[in-house]
Amino acid sequence: EVLALLVLVYPLLWGLALHLHSAVTGSYIPGTHSIAFISCLNEQIARDIARAIMDKKLAACVNILPKSSALYFWKGELEESTEILLLVKTRTSKIGELSDYVRSIHPFEIPEILSLRIDQGNPLYLKWIEESVPRH
């Protein structure tokens, strides 16, 4: 039972230790923040989704990138389309909620929602993301 308890508590204690270290030293914990990529059919849909994400405070910033060409397989056929890409900067802890929310409002049957953890960056910018996106 003690071993099972240690296995359950260790990740929590390790996370707490990392956050305490970060608070004391002012250093960034790699992976605390993420960038999510969301593709959209057109600029209006992209703007609507970006605004909805910001209204829910699920991101500090959403960039709307101009049209790009995409080639992909859909139902066994090679398709080609133009898409608008959103780059969403947020807390890694918000990615699940962000993904659920975007899937609920996105017109695609299977929207592209991918995220990558931020390993390093401008400390002041990363602090700004932290301050801009509520923890809860």
UniProtKB/TrEMBL annotation:
UniProt entry tagged with the keyword Secreted: no
TM region(s), chain numbering: none
Family classification: Belongs to the CutA family.
SUPFAM superfamilies named in the record: GlnB-like (SSF54913)
Signal peptide coordinates: 1-17
Keyword terms: Signal
InterPro entries tied to this protein: Ion_tolerance_CutA (IPR004323), N-reg_PII-like_a/b (IPR011322), N-reg_PII/ATP_PRibTrfase_C (IPR015867)
Subunit structure comment from the entry: Homotrimer.
GO molecular function: copper ion binding
Protein name: CUTA protein
GO biological process: response to metal ion
Chain coiled-coil ranges: none
A Pfam family hit: CutA1
Annotated source species: Dicaeum eximium
